Amino acid sequence: MSEKLHFDDKAAKRVEAMYASSDVVAQRQHVMQALGLRAGERILDIGSGPGFLLLEMAHAVGSSGRVAGIDISNSMLAMAQKRCAAHPWVELREANAMNLPFDDHEFDAAVVTQVYEYIADIESSLAELYRVLRPGGRALIVDTDWESLVLHTSYPDRSRRVLSAWDQHLVNPTLPRTLIPELRRAGFALTHSTVIPMYNPDYDPDTYSYGWISIVVSFVSRWSGMIKEEAKAWAEDLRQLGERGEYFFSLNRYLFLVEKPDHD
Ligand SMILES: C[S@@+](CC[C@H](N)C(=O)[O-])C[C@H]1O[C@@H](n2cnc3c(N)ncnc32)[C@H](O)[C@@H]1O
What we know:
The protein is α/β, with parallel strands linked by helices. It has a domain at 9-145 and 171-199 and 252-259: Rossmann fold, CATH 3.40.50.150. It has nine helices and seven strands. Strands 3-2-1-4-5-7-6 form a seven-stranded mixed sheet, sandwiched between helices. Helix 4 links the parallel strand 2 and strand 3 (90-94). The radius of gyration is 19 Å and the shape is globular. It starts with 8 loop residues before the first helix and ends in a 5-residue tail after the last strand. The mean pLDDT is 95. Bound molecules: S-adenosylmethionine. Residues 7, 15, 19, 47-50, 52-53, 70-73, 76, 96-98, 113-115, 118-119 line the site of S-adenosylmethionine. S-adenosylmethionine is lined by residues 7, 15, 19, 47-50, 52-53, 70-73, 76, 96-98, 113-115, 118-119.
């Protein structure tokens, strides 16, 4: 089976729970600080998902600003709509990052967090990102490099099999390491980049990795054969390691802030 992760109702709810954890709250603080939004700005969130960031950006730009979110998942759009219902300057549309339903130069800034790793055609997606920003506008991108994963497990071979099945949930599990030259080729100038670690030395419901384990099991369990049972056993081992105080998870996400030159 090579089907990618679909953000249907169930998957969207799992992502929402994981994105409410302290680790992802801290990631949004990094993002907001790097973006430095001002009142009245026009912002686009590409692949806006459950809408946590939309809401924070809506507060930052205020009612004189505009926050647009697009996503290909109706389940995600419904969740974001509900979350932002009290802020009429937030608008949501079903659309693909590769073909944005906006005019040239419509936005002062754009964010794309944990989305480009799911998209095969990065070149078209970055061309669209560039097009909709005004000259001098900025874009912030966050993606995970899944080869940075460090996970303690009692059964390394089983863990490798489960994680290699998991790698198929997206198109490019190591996108960050090649994204800077891709961004430059698209015309952007890099102004800042940093690493955002998801570091969990404890098995704790209020962490990124706790929610991630159930998403892996649910994704891999759609496969037939041995791997389904292996995924459940893999998760149970992690839980037991947690009970014994032997749990260890670390994973890197990377943040890139770029600017579109003043002249177009
Ligand atoms: C892991 S979630 C991240 C959500 C949100 N950006 C965040 O960080 O909270 C990935 C989101 O990207 C959306 N997505 C995936 N491919 C997309 C595409 N080609 N165009 C627009 N959205 C896409 C998914 O539906 C999902 O909502």
